[in-house]
Amino acid sequence: GNGMVIGHTSQVSASGALAELQVLGAGGGADAYILSAGFAAGVNGARIGIGHSRSATVGTLVYPNADDQLGILDYLGANQNTSRFDAGVRATAYATSTWTASNAESHYTISTIPNGSLTLTEALRIDSAGNVGIGNAAPAVLLNVGTTTPVMRLGNATANTSAKLQLAGSSSQTNWEIGSVSTIGNALEFTPSTAG
Q: Taking CA atoms, which of 62, 72, 130, 134 is between 20 and 30 Å from 30?
């Protein structure tokens, strides 16, 4: 249908679609700024909702199926070749399984476009158990790095100060520390610890 445009006289295309509501401004910044703010003497703030119903009839609510998109947030850049805006980064929420009255299992992905490509590729996933996958679409543990070159770096911005990985038996006690010792020829140190 006809959309609403604020700040301009006509709609622009984004990812091949004409959005029903557009805020367009010259110069960026405040001219294209959208604000949602809540004023209350309590803890609740403003909310933005993005939703999906499996019904094709507006106003009819039907549970989403497994792998249905619950909503998408696109970060767009202008494409001179296609005369539209295209997504450079995309955040998507999915129903992991078909929803029921007692189950709303869901997961979240962030996709980016690698250098030399025009295709969005999943870079990070948070599954329904809270496991995080970087380059891994099926994380089996709390953090699962699964790229072809799975390198993780811990660095300290302070010169001559070691970086450490702490292995803890609980949130209040560190059992082991693995750290680089920059003052001893960049040695690797394994240290048992009971410090709280």
A: 72
Q: Which residue has the tokens 């199926």?
A: 65
Whether 177 and 166 have beta carbons less than 8 Å apart is answered as yes
> Beta strand 173-181 with 143-145: parallel, antiparallel or unpaired?
unpaired
Q: How far apart are the first and last CA of the chain?
A: 61
What would the DSSP string read from start to end of 96-122?
A: SS--BTTB--EEEEEEE--TT--S-EE
CA 46 to chain centre: 20
- Between the alpha carbon of residue 135 and those of residues 88, 152, 165, the distances in Å are 17, 12, 22
Q: What is the pLDDT of residues 134-190, one digit of tens each?
A: 999 999 999 999 877 778 777 777 765 677 777 777 666 667 778 776 655 566 777
